[in-house]
Amino acid sequence: MHAPHTAVPTADDAFTRLDNRDGVACLTLARPSSRNSLSERMMAELTTALDQLADDKDVRAIVLAADGPAFSAGHDLKEIQSHRNDSDRGRAYFEDVLRRCATLMTRIVRQPQPVIAAVEGMATAAGCQLVASCDLAVAGADARFCTPGVNIGLFCHTPMVALTRSVGRKHAMEMLLLGDWVKAEEAHRMGLVNRVVPSGEALAGAMDFARQIAAKSRVPVKLGKAAFYTQAEMGLDDAYAYASQVMAENMLARDADEGISAMIGKRQPYWEDR
């Protein structure tokens, strides 16, 4: 049993909301009027919140949710179009905003705590990328996913990076080339989401995942998440060599000794997170 953690206060005009309780942080996109588009400010607030949570030892899992009928409509296209008349036709701004987006997505992957998306409504373009970047995802039955850039003359190049690391190549290419909507059940079949729950229950489903994770030792979860993404980029022999090294390190942890002893002794383990 972990002690409740005080909610982090946010400004009334903030684009995000953060609430921490019982080892789980719920980070909410709170700009429904813009369909929670990933504007500069939204991405900055999300990245800052994740940076702060990374060092919070009371937070063992993170749920990423959203207010309103849309999870996220992707980049703020009005913000992007406003730079078309820059002297370089917007090139410097486009490159900068895409770097900011990449920073957010890689922050999720490199976050020491697992990040679980709770998706209701639509998740399009960079919003779909956000879901694909999370470690786990739960979708309401009415959720829909799309990478529609090709329909407006703009291939979803950066969402492609997360998508191809989340679903099979043929599925990714279908989404990227056709730009069609993918319903929640199809997204589950493709591997983009882990579970589909009744509409309106995605947050509850994501919290179930998070609470199960929060009940475990931080040591294997942190080591395991980092190792998962590292070995996935390696060849087979290198992956086994790396994973063996990390697992040996994990075996030396106090909690591994405690967990194995508890299993042999048929008792509940007591975690010290070391």
UniProtKB/TrEMBL annotation:
It comes from the Bacteria. SUPFAM superfamilies: ClpP/crotonase. The keyword Lipid metabolism applies. The keyword Protease does not apply. One of its GO terms (biological process) is fatty acid metabolic process. Keywords: Fatty acid metabolism, Lipid metabolism, Transit peptide. GO terms for molecular function: hydro-lyase activity. May play a role in fatty acid biosynthesis and insulin sensitivity. This is Enoyl-CoA hydratase domain-containing protein 3, mitochondrial.
